[in-house]
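Batch manifest, entry 17 of 40.
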Amino acid sequence: MQWSYKDLPDVTTVPEEVPYVLGRILAQRGIVGEESVSQFLVPDYERDIHDPFLFRDMDKAVARISAALDLGETIGIFGDHDADGVSAATLVADTLEMLGGTVEVYIPDKATQGHGIHTDGIDAFAAKGVRVMMSVDCGTSSHAAVDDARAQDIDVIITDHHHAPDVLPDAYAIINPQVADETYPFRLLSGTGVAFKVMCALVARYAPTYSNRMKWLLDIVAVGTIADCMPLVGENRALVYYGLKVLNKTRRMGYRQMFHVGGFVRDGAAIRAETVAYYLAPRINAAGRMSHAWDAFALLRETRSDMARTQAKVLEKLNKERQRVTAALTRDVERIVETEQKDAAMIVVADEKYPPGIVGVVAGRIVEKYHRPTGIFTRFEHESRGSFRSVDGVHIVDVLTRCSAHIVQFGGHEKAAGATVAHTAFDDFVKMANATVAALADTVPEPSLTIDATITVEDVTVEFADALEALEPFGEGNSEPIFAMHDAMIVDMRPVGSDGAHVKMVLTDASGTARVDAIGFSLRDTCDAFSPGDRVHVAGAVQKNTWNGTVRPQMRIVDIVAA
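Output type: structure tokens
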């Protein structure tokens, strides 16, 4: 992979008390000046969180939910099957019950019902006397389902963050920052973030004495935001910054048992955004992918330690099965790409044997390997349902919009989306999608690894890692800094992990006096080309490794090449 080095910025506009390396990275990211740097490094909840009533329909939504609480009406919550949707449903159910409300929750089955409000859920709500329902993390494109709800005298309040079509459903209220003429100033909230804003507005109006309790729900907001890969900038940065503080001392038994059963939080190590992205979120998502998202929802709502542990073990087992199936399916798609779609502008593969819950994960892996927009579909009797992942320069929802004449329904974000295509239109869809992406070829940059700065072996210290932590939380929109270490020598290296896929090594500088530990996750194949004594260029992140109470600096390698 090509390495691209960022320019050296002018750091004279960064406050003197900020360490030089932090000032350089902040300046590279356009964060300069004392006020901007201060706001970024130390988010302030009161300053950085916007008034929820800036949403144009918020007053209307709050008034209807308040009336339902006053009248003792059962309130329906229509969720979604991923970690963001499950988190949003949990947050809303917890808040409404805290206010004395009665709720009915419906989460669709990913395999049979797909994304969006499903009429089965509407019928279930109607049968239980529901007269007002909230969708969370879905609904903006569910025109038919909303019409069905209206026909059954159910008022629908949509809370969502996905792409908004030009013509919106005829809902009672729509809270979605993606709506074209929405007045809310921040457009990048997760589905859980949007649900949190609605509940904060409700509590502020209906039971203001409970307002301080809402901050204890920020752990759920952080998990939903990170899991859905939302940019950690602006309001999201503040929500996740404080949400991780809550998560590190969470009262939620489901999280605590997932930490314990999964063993990915140990020795008092801090729970970071990386912990959520690579360990916690996949386990929550595994429920919807391999079984039913209700397993995850029930765990997040469980208050009994023994029951939570039992349910956490279920998710742990589902996640391991998800890993196995994902690996097998990825190999199958790679074979098809190599034999049939080497020159395709957009990779599209469909098969009836592909589990619907896994296709999105596989699409992401294919994009990483081939750097092309990818759609992986599960074929059903009359139609195929697929998930898409994309690359920089190709807005996948725009692509699907141009192909909408051949699509039953679709929705999503810039880099991830879902769609349903009838078998009779599938070939035409693939041809148009390929033509559309091919026309965008000039907008797609070559894959490269961006290097923030060059360091030496001696630079990798606990103090250096501590300084970098001021930039957290890391994620989409605020990536972890990547450093290049030139002409280091491998002193020792060995495979680690249950399957030997990872590599541990010790690196030294030219003088041989300074050494640093390094680890490369899933880099066994790459590192097979090297041996102790070889000189290499290494790119990676500088972190701390806590083991048996000892804290040591280490470099997490993302790429390694011969010097």
